[in-house]
Amino acid sequence: MDSNFRQTVLRAVDSAFDRQTDFLKQLCRFSSVRGHEQSIQLYLADALRSRGYETDVWEINEQDLADLPGFSPVLEPYAQALNVVGKSISRSRKGRSLILNGHVDVVPTGPLSMWCNPPFEPYIEEDWLYGRGAGDMKAGLSCNFFALEALASLGFQPAADCYLQFVVEEECTGNGALACLQRGYTADAALIPEPFGEALVIAQIGVLWLQVRLNGIPSHIAHASAGVNAIEAALPLISALRELETRWNDAARRPTEFEGVDHPLNLNIGRIEGGDWASSVPAWSTFDVRMAVYPGDDIDTAERELRQCIASAADRSEYLRQNPPEVICHGFRAEGYSLGRDCSKAATNAIELLSAMHQIVNGSPMARTPITATTDARYFGLYAGMPALVYGPVAERIHGYDERVLLDSVRRVTQSIALFIAAWCELEPLERA
Description:
This protein is of the alpha+beta class. It has two domains: about 300 residues, Aminopeptidase (3-Layer(aba) Sandwich); about 130 residues, Alpha-Beta Plaits, CATH 3.30.70.360. It contains twelve helices and 19 strands. Strand 17 and strand 18 form a beta hairpin. The model has no long low-confidence stretch (mean pLDDT about 95).
């Protein structure tokens, strides 16, 4: 691929960028929180079919996944949890195959009063596109889609099988990506344009979710001593988990990838509820725990330590010793993943190639960074033996209010991905309808 053709690819992305922006805005109009992804998935399936992709749409069945490495348990059975894959099948297969992965699910909006505008009515202001999911990660979906569009506009398609994956469940289990593996989708590498500032993610933490349920003894508040407050009973358990968080973040156990990161393992009490009436001693409470682990940490050992921490704190209460909390593992049961530990030829080549394409587009070296979040990269890297490149646009306030993505960054990432596809997969004449 000579320099003239590279410039032609960059111009092709530029020429279609208004359409890409409109496409991204349309994606952001879908309120695709967990359980409500069907509409956006059907929209994407139609978009793929209209462009001649062989399209695979199926409903995730948790029973198909339950015995696979990386499965995360769910509380409620899946209903209409759809995955969508567009297949660009090569005739020559002279290049290396590729998965372009991204998730359509978004987290809840939080209080609407904190948003300047309704979160599912996207708008542009000073080169930023605002809306829930704009950054995490519908911009990345548009990058994957329009990188291939740019090549198609020049009359080319990948000279190796390339799979455009639109998955659900990334924000709570990752089972959508696992379902793609279970269905047989593998390749020589995967690329996931999550919004981490045009840097290559070299390592990511793992995540465990637990739910802690406590029972108290109800009574009228006039006779408070006759009851046991289940909400207040949760407080020492949370304090004990904070102490465990401090121990786990000790510098002595910090792996090399995270040496420059302050406090990489973050505990979050993400949700708490309990009680039924302001003048009744609450008879129940529930709180949800998110805790991080390092790449290489054994997930079973981490869960046992968390459970033991809760049990030990409960044992210091006479009431909880006799009425121990119930701890349920559901949602994320995700191992950490380090691309930097992958010494394979495929990983080395993929990283070098993406770095080179980034340099061409940006005129500066590609940064490499660890992140204190998790992505679906672990499925490809840990369970399918393929390097998983996480590289996406600049975004701000993801999971917060007034989430936004920088459009010029979306353009650059689309260009880098288009060049990467052309070099990694090589190209052949387009033959889709």
